[in-house]
Sequence to fold (237 residues):
Amino acid sequence: MGSAAGWLWGLIHPLVLLGSYTFIFGVCLKTKPGPDEVTQNYPMLLFAGMLPWMLFSETLLRSASAIVEHANLITKTIFPAEIVPVTIFLSSLISHLLAVALFVAAAGLWMQDFSPMVFLLPVFLLLLGMLAVGLGWIAGALQVYLRDTAQILSVIMTLWFWVTPILITEKQFPAWARFAIRANPLAYLVRDYRLMLLGHRLPAPEDWAMTAAFAVGAFVTGGLFFRYLKRGFADVL
Fold:
């Protein structure tokens, strides 16, 4: 028997998280966006911030164990192992696009608002994909040799989520902790999504440059790292 909901589970999970975080932070803790944020609607601000994070984290976490899971295919056939994280990203992209469509519908019905900048999201999706796939290559290759990599990554991702300005805004971070935002590629992507979907404007050129630098750097470094470690896959797998 197949799954009753199929790919819809990829949409249900983030919506449940969105509802939970909105209740805890927006209702119970009464978290409010700052006066200079793109919107005062906390649930929609949270939703826009979660969109890039969910796609990134799902791609990276699944990629970490994917090479080991496909060991038979990789060792017994002429199969380009590099493509595995790419296919994971593309499959996760379906749920992401559905979530973006849901966001646009919610913005139209709840806020009577529509941002034409949504049509430029593919540019940032490309950069997000390069970042996630590049880091996925590194994690997937390390998992072949160090089987605790996926567990270590899970812990890192938990910390990474909390140092990304999703539940609270950048200015709500204490001054001494803001270095974590400047060094965090997801902070730029969250800011980009919010500006485009809620602020009706493109990110600043320096934000474009930082997002692209992180993405290209991770993609190139990850590709070279994976290619180097791939030579020993057949002996270890």
